[in-house]
């Protein structure tokens, strides 16, 4: 089907950009506080998730789930890049209740229906094409329990539709706030909260959205 090959092409283009980027991966752990400091919007909204069985979507090398290493919850780390999942396996060696999934870049087929309490995605979906995001939202809705929540950091870039995302500031893909809101509703969520955030010198270039499965 043509739609399927479009989605596969869009998701594999972004995946290729993140296969190996030493400038990013070697340093990413050193600025994890941008997300995890107590006073950040990310942390405040994260604290509204039931983390009992949580998915870290596009986990990279696991720096966010690592913050939860002592929490005793069940963690499912998902990433399209196999090398990242292999590194996560080594990193979490000896830590109980961690599952690793190297997915196809647009679905969560290895995760059962209604089986998770929450999902989060930081510093990754900002780059995804909106068609891929719509696919993921449908999948996220499928795997969450009713009342389960997802916290998604995504782009708020309304410029360059149809363009190449790498040409945009900070590689933010086309995803105006209202489009994400619309996709969330159509995927079976209610939007609990949406906040615009700055990235580098760009004001309100990103959004963080908390959704709940209804
Ligand atoms: C900038 S890194 C961020 C990783 C992690 N979230 C973090 O904050 O450290 C982007 C991640 O998204 C992953 N990725 C890219 N496209 C993806 C897709 N379609 N589905 C799942 N993961 C994807 C990449 O492999 C990479 O690990």
What does this entry show, briefly?
The protein has 214 residues and is of the alpha/beta class.
Overall average pLDDT: 97
- Which class of secondary structure composition applies to the elements? alpha/beta
Ligands: S-adenosylmethionine
Strand portion, in percent? 25-35%
| Uncertain stretches of 5 or more adjacent residues | none
Distance between the termini: 30 Å
CATH class descriptor: Alpha Beta
As for the number of domains, it is 1
What is the oligomeric state here? single chain
CATH topology: Rossmann fold
Give Rg in angstroms.
16 Å
Shape, please?
globular
Strand arrangement, major sheet:
3-2-1-4-5-7-6
- The total strand number stands at 7
The number of helical runs is 8
Helix content: 25-40%
CATH architecture: 3-Layer(aba) Sandwich
Order of helices and strands: HHHHEHEHEEHEHEE
Name the CATH homologous superfamily: Vaccinia Virus protein VP39
Largest sheet: 7 strands, mixed
Describe this structure in words.
The chain contains 8 helices and 7 strands, in the order H-H-H-H-E-H-E-H-E-E-H-E-H-E-E. The chain has one domain: Rossmann fold (3-Layer(aba) Sandwich), CATH 3.40.50.150. The longest helix has 16 residues, at 2-17. Strand 1 (53-57), helix 5 (63-66) and strand 2 (74-79) form a beta-alpha-beta unit. It has helices spanning 2-17, 22-25, 33-36, 41-46, 63-66, 82-91, 130-143, 177-186, and strands at 53-57, 74-79, 98-102, 116-121, 144-155, 189-199, 202-213. The mean pLDDT is 97. It has 214 residues and is of the alpha/beta class.
């Amino acid at each position: 089907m043509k739609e399927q090959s479009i989605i596969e092409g869009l998701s594999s283009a972004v995946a290729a950009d993140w296969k190996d980027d030493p400038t990013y991966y070697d340093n990413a752990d050193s600025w994890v506080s941008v997300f995890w400091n107590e006073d950040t919007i990310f942390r405040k909204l994260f604290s509204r998730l039931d983390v009992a069985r949580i998915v870290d979507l596009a986990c990279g090398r696991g720096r966010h789930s690592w913050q939860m290493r002592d929490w005793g919850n069940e963690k499912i780390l998902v990433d399209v890049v196999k090398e990242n999942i292999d590194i996560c396996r080594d990193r979490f060696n000896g830590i109980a209740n961690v599952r690793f999934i190297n997915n196809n870049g647009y679905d969560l087929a290895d995760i059962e229906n209604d089986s998770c309490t929450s999902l989060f995605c930081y510093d990754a979906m900002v780059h995804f094409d909106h068609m891929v995001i719509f696919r993921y939202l449908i999948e996220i809705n499928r795997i969450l329990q009713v009342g389960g929540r997802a916290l998604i950091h995504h782009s708020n870039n309304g410029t360059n539709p149809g363009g190449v995302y790498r040409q945009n500031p900070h590689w933010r893909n086309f995803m105006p706030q209202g489009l994400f809101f619309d996709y969330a509703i159509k995927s079976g969520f209610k939007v609990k909260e949406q906040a615009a955030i700055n990235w580098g010198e760009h004001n309100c270039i990103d959004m963080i959205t908390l959704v709940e499965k209804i």
